[in-house]
Specification:
CATH architecture of the largest domain: 2-Layer Sandwich
Shape: rod-shaped
Number of helices: 14
Distance between the termini: 146 Å
Largest sheet: 5 strands, parallel
Strand order of the largest sheet: 2-1-3-4-5
Order of helices and strands: HEHEHEHEHEHEEHHHEEEHHEHEEHEHE
Number of domains: 3
Helix content: 40-55%
Oligomer: single chain
Strand content: 15-25%
Length: 466
């Protein structure tokens, strides 16, 4: 029934790394014992049963790697046992090798038809049995590895799918615009010529007023920048080439929005960009800036006359004194007082007095032609004029022009001792700042000149004599 085993074969097989759990099914105990002894010597674990029912029960209780199955058995032959294995979900993938004395082609074909993976005829050589066992064990392990790899890949695909779904959800639900761009380079020079849109979320599409399908995969970025934000293209090229991130604000009217903040970072041979609508913030900043300017203006304006107030006069005089000290140019100051204004106020009432002050202030303010000259309300019915780079002669000409402007107003003043109209007295001083002169000197000289004008009969301008 079998041939002798070479000792060399036993020595070789004792070193086999791959061993298995074999279920032996044969109705002849001597055959089972023979196979069991041979396989045990070769390092295999084997169990033996004498009929098909026990074979199924044993396989269910402890799953074997391979079944060596005889064909000729009572009650259930080997073909029926194999069919029972294949019909059982938990046993169907166990390889079954038929081992039988039946050598007809019909028997072999039937063995394969019912699900067998191999067929060994008796008498057998142990070398052949071992070789076929090993082949099936290798196939089985390869299948297990393949199934494990398939399971691993399915798990990875599941993770990737979930990641893509998460990324897609984030992109589609993000309040910020998000896009990824890939550099398109000149094949010869390698210079970046454009950027291809790889990812564009709905916010970006809405800003660009385009469908996402019209953007993804297209070379539309440079064209858009050329029409709206030309200078930014080179900046984005620099992001890719240098790896340095870039951020900033840009103005682009789109619907109800017009101001956006962007952040661009290198992404492989391209960049990713996020865009946030900051229109509301910008509008608030602009409104705040305008409010601050108005507050600054109000802080420097006289509430009644709407010309510069005393605070503004003081700040501007210090600023100009320092500037003229550096440049060594003359700075002129004119102090002005409405003649006999208290009498005018008493006879015309405070409202009439205020109206007179307003008209006089506006008339004086129109005389200086240079934007660097300042006309301010100095206090009560007094006014001051600061004239940059002006000598005494120039200041006298301005004072004369102011006198004419006030005369043209022809505001009646019945209680004046010098005229039946409103007139002015003016004191003029012009100094070139130096170490032994101060702002106080300039103001003092102009004030003394004003006092002299009043002492000499009013309705006149007197200049300080250095």
């Amino acid at each position: 029934m079998y041939k002798p085993i070479n000792e060399s074969l036993m020595n070789f097989d004792s070193q086999l790394e791959t061993k298995g759990n074999i279920l032996l099914v044969d109705d002849l105990p001597e055959n089972l014992q023979l196979l069991h002894d041979l396989l045990s010597m070769l390092g295999y674990t084997s169990r033996s049963v004498t009929n098909g029912i026990k074979a199924i029960e044993t396989a269910r209780s402890q799953r074997p790697d391979i079944v060596l199955l005889d064909v000729k058995m009572p009650e259930m032959d080997g073909y029926q046992v194999c069919q029972a294995f294949k019909a059982d979900f938990n046993l169907c993938d166990i390889p079954i090798i038929f081992i039988s004395a039946l050598n007809d082609t019909f028997d072999k074909l039937k063995a394969f038809e019912v699900g067998g993976v191999d067929y060994i005829t008796k008498p057998f050589q142990i070398e052949e049995v071992v070789a076929r066992l090993e082949a099936q064990l290798i196939i089985q392990k390869q299948q297990q590895l393949l199934q494990a790899e398939i399971a691993r890949r399915k798990e990875i695909e599941g993770v990737l799918y979930q990641s893509r779904a998460l990324i897609s959800s984030v992109l589609n639900s993000a309040l910020d615009g998000i896009a990824a761009m890939q550099a398109v380079r000149d094949p010869q020079s390698g210079n970046i010529e454009n950027f291809r849109c790889l990812v564009v979320n709905p916010v970006i599409a809405k800003i660009l007023e385009r469908n996402r399908e019209d953007l993804i995969g297209k070379l539309v970025f440079k064209k858009f920048l050329h029409h709206h934000l030309l200078n930014l293209f080179d900046d984005f090229v620099a992001v890719v080439e240098s790896g340095e991130p870039l951020d900033g604000d840009f103005y682009y009217p789109a619907g109800n929005s017009c101001w956006y903040h962007y952040v661009a970072v290198k992404l492989d041979d391209g960049f990713a960009i996020t865009v946030r609508d900051i229109t509301a913030r910008k509008q608030m900043e602009i409104a705040l800036q305008e409010a601050n300017q108005k507050l600054q203006l109000l802080a420097n304006l006289d509430g009644l006359t709407q010309i510069a107030n005393r605070r503004c006069f003081n700040d501007y005089l210090v600023q100009e004194w320092q500037c003229h000290q550096r440049e060594q140019n003359p700075l002129a100051l004119i102090l002005i007082d409405i003649d006999y204004f208290k009498r005018y106020n008493d006879s015309n009432g405070h409202q009439g007095g205020d109206d007179c002050i307003i008209r006089v202030a506006q008339a004086i303010a129109k005389v200086p032609q240079r934007p660097t000259d300042l006309v301010a309300r100095y206090g009560g019915e007094e006014f001051a004029v600061i004239l940059r780079n002006t000598h005494t002669e120039g200041a006298l000409r301005v004072a004369d022009a102011i006198q004419k402007a006030i005369a043209s107003l022809a505001i009646p003043h019945e209680n004046s001792d010098v005229s039946d109209l409103i007139t002015l007295s003016m004191g003029i001083a012009s100094l070139t700042p130096c170490v032994d002169r101060s702002i106080e000197n300039l103001i003092m000289y102009a004030d003394r000149s004003l006092y002299a004008a009043k002492q000499q009969g009013r309705n006149r301008a007197i200049a300080h004599e250095p």
